[in-house]
């Protein structure tokens, strides 16, 4: 389905700047009215770079978060509702009424998940979806075993993901066991994908995602079936990719 465009940069700050350029170019081209936002540490340098440049038109866009923990108080500083407000909505000057996060505190999270899927569709869909990748190959919280056709739903977080994310909490037991996540199919419906990857813990993951077999065992491998993927990565995480995919750094 076409190869991803891979941009490498020397460090996480430079990754953020390069990724911000991709977002800015989409805005300038009039191709960005709805942005999909990831949380976690990978896109933070991108959000900071965008907050610094505040390109024209940025404040008018709508946004959808990728996922949210189930059962975590929405006021908890690590709920994705709060993370998105703190790292995206406020610094980028977005209209809070146009920024949506799945309702992980809903009485019926499965219903909230289905409604979120419908809201995305009703909005006309996501123009540009920002993504990170988990150590186990998850995208959003589509853990290994997630199917290509999966939609927004409630999922169980794997022990590996809970351990990874315990860095954001005071105690590992505080990490929720479930989340509402956009599905693989939901993500692949976005018109364009922007995957941001940096840091030593991400080494080897891009190779598995883009040069390994397409399999639910490594959900990021489904990105191979999207025609418009841009990856911005530091050298450590781009290591091991064939030179066709990852030409020399700028
Ligand atoms: C976040 C998300 C996750 C993260 C992934 C990488 O909304 O859906 O898939 O992108 O776990 O996390 P970091 O960037 O913290 O390494």
TrEMBL record:
It comes from Kineosporia babensis. One of its GO terms (biological process) is N-acetylneuraminate catabolic process. This is Glucosamine-6-phosphate deaminase. Pfam families: Glucosamine_iso. GO terms for molecular function: glucosamine-6-phosphate deaminase activity; identical protein binding. It comes from the Bacteria. Residues 13-226 form the Glucosamine/galactosamine-6-phosphate isomerase domain. Signal peptide: none annotated.
């Amino acid at each position: 389905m076409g190869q991803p465009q891979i941009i490498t940069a020397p460090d996480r700050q430079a990754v953020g700047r390069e990724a911000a350029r991709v977002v800015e170019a989409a805005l300038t081209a009039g191709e960005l009215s709805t942005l999909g936002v990831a949380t976690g540490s990978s896109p933070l340098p991108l959000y900071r770079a965008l907050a610094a440049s505040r390109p024209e038109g940025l404040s008018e866009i709508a946004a959808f978060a990728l996922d949210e923990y189930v059962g975590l108080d929405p006021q908890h500083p690590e709920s994705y509702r709060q993370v998105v407000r703190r790292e995206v909505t406020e610094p980028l000057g977005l209209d809070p009424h146009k920024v949506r996060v799945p309702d992980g505190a809903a009485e019926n999270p499965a219903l909230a998940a289905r409604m979120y899927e419908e809201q995305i569709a009703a909005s006309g869909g996501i123009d540009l979806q920002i993504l990170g990748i988990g150590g186990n190959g998850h995208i959003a919280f589509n853990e290994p075993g997630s199917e290509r056709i999966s939609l927004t739903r409630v999922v169980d977080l794997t022990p590996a993901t809970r351990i990874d994310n315990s860095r954001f909490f005071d105690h590992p037991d505080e990490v929720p066991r479930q989340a509402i996540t956009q599905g693989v199919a939901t993500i692949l419906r976005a018109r364009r994908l922007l995957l941001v990857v940096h840091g030593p813990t991400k080494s080897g993951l891009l190779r598995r995602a883009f040069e390994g077999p397409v399999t639910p065992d490594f959900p990021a491998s489904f990105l191979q079936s999207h025609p418009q993927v841009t990856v911005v990565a530091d050298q450590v995480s781009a290591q091991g990719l064939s030179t066709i995919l990852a030409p020399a750094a700028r």
